[in-house]
Write a structure and sequence with these properties.
By secondary structure, this protein is mainly alpha-helical. Helix content is 75%, strand content 0%. The radius of gyration is 26 Å and the shape is rod-shaped.
Length: 67
């Protein structure tokens, strides 16, 4: 059976059982959430980077106004 043929199932339960088995195996490959420690590190580094950009913009604006 290729992707262009329509599978024939004897009942809705057989369809659900096969569909759930396929979707579960694909789901574990697609969705791999970050570990909490890695997510925390990414959030902290992003936050620090954003604050650095803000302070850089404020200091460059202050130096431009003081000239």
């Amino acid at each position: 059976m290729n992707r262009h043929t329509v599978p024939h199932y004897r009942s809705a339960a057989e369809y659900r059982r096969r569909h759930d088995a396929i979707s579960r195996s694909n789901q574990s490959e697609r969705e791999s959430p970050l570990a909490p420690g890695v997510a925390l590190i990414i959030i902290v580094l992003s936050s620090l980077g954003l604050w650095c950009v803000i302070w850089l913009a404020v200091s460059s604006l202050a130096s431009a106004l003081s000239l």
